[in-house]
Design a protein that fits this description.
- The protein is an all-beta fold.
- The protein is built from no helices and ten strands.
- Strand 9 and strand 10 form a beta hairpin.
- The chain is globular and about 45 Å long.
- The chain starts with 15 loop residues before the first strand and ends with a strand.
Length: about 140
């Protein structure tokens, strides 16, 4: 006997939004976090419409998002703070149409705890440092 959990309806409440150049082209994309779902959208300048590029479910709750760009880079990376007590650095791969995990750092126990860092993220505009903070 095997147990399989499947959610029929996708989350609708947006918990975090960031914008940046995630595909490497010279266009701006919008990344939405809806609970456990990451959605990447591209804005069409000619029509003014948003077109979905990717929707990925993560196994956890997304607490915070932050974009950052390395010094001299042309592409933005994504920092995701989740309820697993970790922050993950993601890169969008347009060839595979997926997010690739570049680095993962664990800071505490799982669950949305007030003392585990990951609720607040701050990024240096020049891409030199990332600060992570907790509620308490």
């Amino acid at each position: 006997m095997f147990l399989y959990a499947l959610t029929l309806q996708r989350p609708t409440a947006i918990t975090a939004v960031i914008h940046g150049n995630f595909t490497g082209s010279k266009t701006q994309e919008i990344l939405l976090a809806r609970g456990r779902l990451l959605e990447l959208y591209r804005l069409d300048v000619n029509t003014g419409k948003l077109y979905p590029l990717l929707a990925v479910e993560v196994f956890g709750i997304i607490r915070s998002l932050a974009p950052f760009r390395l010094t001299g880079g042309t592409k933005d990376f994504i920092i995701v703070g989740s309820d697993s007590g970790r922050i993950v650095i993601l890169e969008y791969n347009p060839i595979k149409n997926t997010f690739e995990k570049l680095h993962q750092e664990t800071f505490g126990k799982s669950g949305c705890r007030r003392i585990v860092p990951g609720q607040y993220l701050a990024v240096d505009p020049k891409g030199r440092a990332v600060m992570i903070g907790a509620v308490e």
